[in-house]
Structure formats: C-alpha cells, structure tokens
User: What shape does this take?
Amino acid sequence: MKIKKPKYFSSFSLLEKELAKQNYSKIFVLVDSNTRQHCFSKLLSFSKNIIIIEIKPTDEHKNLISCEKIWQTLSAENADRKSVLINIGGGMICDLGGFAASVYKRGIDFMHVPTTSMAMCDAAIGGKTAVNFANAKNIIGTFHQPKQIFICNDFLKSLPKRELISGLAEVMKHALLNNDKKILNQLNEIAVDDLDWKKLVKSSVEYKMKVIEKDFFEQNIRKLLNVGHTFGHAVEAALMHDEKKKLLHGEAVAMGFRFEILLAIIVFDLKLDEANFVLELLDKYFPIIKFSSTEKKKIIALLKADKKNQNGKINFSLFKKIGNAKIDCFVSEEKIEQLLKAF
Amino acid sequence: MKIKKPKYFSSFSLLEKELAKQNYSKIFVLVDSNTRQHCFSKLLSFSKNIIIIEIKPTDEHKNLISCEKIWQTLSAENADRKSVLINIGGGMICDLGGFAASVYKRGIDFMHVPTTSMAMCDAAIGGKTAVNFANAKNIIGTFHQPKQIFICNDFLKSLPKRELISGLAEVMKHALLNNDKKILNQLNEIAVDDLDWKKLVKSSVEYKMKVIEKDFFEQNIRKLLNVGHTFGHAVEAALMHDEKKKLLHGEAVAMGFRFEILLAIIVFDLKLDEANFVLELLDKYFPIIKFSSTEKKKIIALLKADKKNQNGKINFSLFKKIGNAKIDCFVSEEKIEQLLKAF
Assistant: This one.
C-alpha cells in the first residue's frame, strides 16, 4: 500500500501558509485546550474562516463522549464529504480526530498536525485511529490514512520537558527494531538537552512508514511495532485515573519495555548484555514505577482484554535480539502473573 | 473490488448446519427481541455455545447506545480478533452490527443473516454499515465487507405482510435502474401474494453486487443506488418518533421515489408515461403519506444535513429515464421547498 509521506516545515509561518492552501468546502480544526493555547494560536493567518472544535486534554478524554462532541459540531455545521478535519495536537488528538473523521458520513478527509514528540514520531504516522472504551485503550477504532501529515519541529520548543522525553520511548522502539546504531548511539551518549530532534523524528517516521507500507492492516510485520506496548498499554490504562501516578504514553511504554525485556529473557534467551543496554537506556530517560498489588491485578485484567489476544492467551511482540523481534508470542496468564509478582 | 457472493439456503436446517461450521474463537450473535423470537429460535442446533447480544428492535435503536451495548458485551466476554459477530435480523441489525464489528478492535469479522425482504434485497448487501446520530440517518458508519452473507427465503414466510412489502421498494429501485423488464412486469402484473420472492431477491442481489464491485467506496456509479433515498431518508427520520405515522424504510423510500420522480420531471424532462408507470407501481404497494407543514420543515432540515450534500446544495440521484439515472444532481434548497409545498 502506498502511503503519503509527511511534509516537514522548519517554521510556523511556512506551516500556516500550507494549511491555508487547503481547498475544502469547510475546514474544521480539532484542538484540546492546551494545543489551542500553545500551538493553534501560533498559526495566525490560518486561524480565519475555520470552525474550531475544542475538547478536554489528556488520554482520559479520548472516548466516545469527545467523539460525540465532534460529530455534533460537524453535524450542526453541515460538514459534508468535501469537508476536512485538521487535528492539531498530540497522539490523543490525532487518534480521536482520526477516528471521528473516519466514520463521520462513512469517512471524511482528515489531516494531522502533530505537536508533541510522541505524535510526530509515532501516533500521527500509520493511519491507526482509536478511542478508549470500557477501561481498555484504543478498543474502538479504524485503519484509515490521514490525507496529509504536517510536521513542524518548532512545536517541540515549547513542549514541557516531561512530554518531550515521552516521545523517546517510540524513537527508541523504532531504533531498536531497526538496529539503527546512529540513533541508538545518540540516545545513549548525548545529553538530553542536546538531542537532535529533527534527526530523531525523521528516523522514526521513516522506519515506521517502511513497516506500514508493507502491512497497513497489521496482519504480520506491523505487529513488530507492538514491542513494549502490550504491557505498556495495560500500565497506562491501570493508572489513568490516579492523579498522582498517571503516566504519559511514553512513560508507560518504557515500563512496558522493562517488563517485556524480562519476558524476552525468559522466552527467547535474549542476551543479558543486550537486555542491559536497553534497560540502561530506559533508566537514562524514564522513571521506574512501583505497582501496588491492586494495580498489578488491574494490569492483569487489562492484559486479558488486550485487543491482540487470541484464545485467551496474551499476545506480545518480543525481542530475540536488538534488530530482531518476533510477533505473535502468546504467553499464558499464569506466566505473566508470576513474572509480575517478582517485577 | 472482488465481493464475496451471498450463499443461498432453501431451508432453516441447511442454514443452521452452515452457521454451526464457523470456526472462530468465539461466536457472538446479534438479534433484536423480534428476530430472537421469530428467527434465531429456528436455528436450533446453532443455538449452542454462542453469546447472544439482544437489542431493542426498530430503527430508532440503531444508535450509539446500542453500539455501546454490543461493545460492552464483546469486551466483557473478551472477544478477540478471531471472534465473529453474526447479525441475524433486518436492515437495522445488519447496519448496526456491521458498524459495531467493523470498529471493535479496529475490525473483527462479521456475517449477515438477513431475515427481512428489505435486508435480503438491499441492506445486507454491499458493506455499508451505519448508525443514526443527532436525528440524521446513517451519519456514523464505515465501508466494510461482511465476511459472508447467508440468505434463507424461509424467513420471509413468517414476516408480517407490511414488512414483506417494504422490501419491494428496493427491488423496484434495482429493477428500474437496470431496466429489468422481467422483474418490472412481475411487480406490475402479478398479485401481491403470488410474487416469486426467490427471483425478486436474487435479481436484486445480483444487480447490487454488480454495482458494488465496480465502485465499493461510492465514488461514482454506486451513487445510482441513492435514487429515492435522499428524500426517503429525510421522510423516514422526520417521522421516526411519531408512533402513528412512523414508516418502514421501504415505505419512506417509496415516498422518496414519488417526490424525486416529480423532481426528475422538472430537472430532466423525465417522460410522463415513464413517471406514471413508476407512480402506479408505487400505488400498487405503498400508501401515500400527507405531510403537515411542521413535518415539511423537518424534512427540509434533514435534507440539508444529508451526508451526500456539497457546498450547501442537496444531492440527488435522479432518473432521466427508466434504466438511465444520473448521479450528483445538486438542487438548491429553495427549489426543494417550492416543490415540497405543492407535494
């Protein structure tokens, strides 16, 4: 499947010119209160003659209630099939807006303007749309390509550091899968504040695009991209409603890597020096989270509801070694429970 | 696009054997209270080891609330990507179940067992899924092929006559578009109780399949199938909450034909003898509905929200003559209002 490449912009002014060019019957823009204030407001000349839909920020609002708000506005404003929805925000806005647009009137065009490192390196790329439902992450969604993706590194300048770092979990994932020595060395050796984000984003996007083109509907090799994510998603959902422990997606994925690296040692004899390399990389950027026994129970329940499972077994993608992961590794609930006890 | 042909069954026992063959991790069956009692109960040997999801009947429950009920059950029962949802019912069940399955975990397999003439001749065929939202018909949905369609004419035997007749609106539509003299003659000349439903269903399915294969995503000729439906959908939605005047889909479409035939006379000089042929055919099977001025206003508002509109103009597919219709006929709101006043 041919996938359209993102367009890169070195400044807000170039991006706003490009956005203003869109020739649709009506232009809708989805933002959350944060991205409205910090991102959308910077696209001055684009801000005219469009209809803004603002929803509440954070993953806990990536749900059907927010979808209904979007559909209500589209409907009230008579959005037609020649209308477009431009999603300006992080992964949550891209996932949510993508889903809402992909089923409104059986699909209108949508575009992504990712404003976080996480969205640029991962969420905005690949045409997976979704909302959370019944406590499970991304359980309702579609495979639907955005019409265009606009990446502008300028947005990263004002991003809080914690959020900026969060995106590194996906950069790391892509570099580990691709055994991209240059990126791994940069992540390993360079101080956090000196990272070359332009390069990190580009390498991530390019690797992910390559995988998506071969397997858009995730029948085989796209499943590689789930490394760290089976456990990571469960952690993210388990802590979602705890104001103090709530994690960013990348932080949850980092915990997912820690757990799944241990699992890979057991299942595949992943070499200890490689495992340690990954764990030390994670330590450089991400906090280690301790789970209470109640949280562990929640995580187990969520793993059991993971959308990739089959016949009651939990489905992981695991590293055999760096640059070589295996999809469809089905592990029994008991094994996971044992390992989690010790974790 | 290659579309899988429906399988036909001459009796319940053959159908239940076929259904029992399905080799999925879990089988879910969607019914409404009517089809559970009158249709599902006839598939005795199939009724074991499956999980039933029952929702309330009629189009007014083809909404997100019913979807959430389906997703909740799928989720609570740990439906995975190797699970299947079998929709046993009329067009409403097929549309709703198709949509719910097509976005659950980004799409699990679903199958249709249409139990009404309307569903066999139209709704179950073609992979359009949808629910109603904010008073508009089918506004949220997907294009997604069912894995299989099972047609068993036996279901029609116990169908209330009003419902049986309703399906003729779609049979008529397909025969008029295809200028299928045999079917048109049967509809015109044979007494209602003597109609050969096996032939009517088969001809309808075959014509629709032919169109769908050429244009699954409704970019061009599939729009032909919207004849009668722009006005018909608006009528259906306008009367949906009026217990006394509420129409079946086919009855609403029949009113749609009446209006759009008049429109075609104005727009395309559709010949009067052809227009009369269609109107008389409609008179044979369908009641004529008078609209109050409040209802007319509602219809106009709904037409303005039709998902096919562009740039504020209402989009019809209209007959130039029998066997030759034209898509994308954009008509202004004013013209529609004038005609509706006189209607």
The first helix of chain A runs from residue 12 to 20. Chain A has a mean pLDDT of 94. The beta strands of chain A are 7-9, 27-32, 51-55, 84-89, 109-114, 128-133, 136-143, 148-152, 314-321, 324-331. The longest strand of chain A covers residues 136-143.
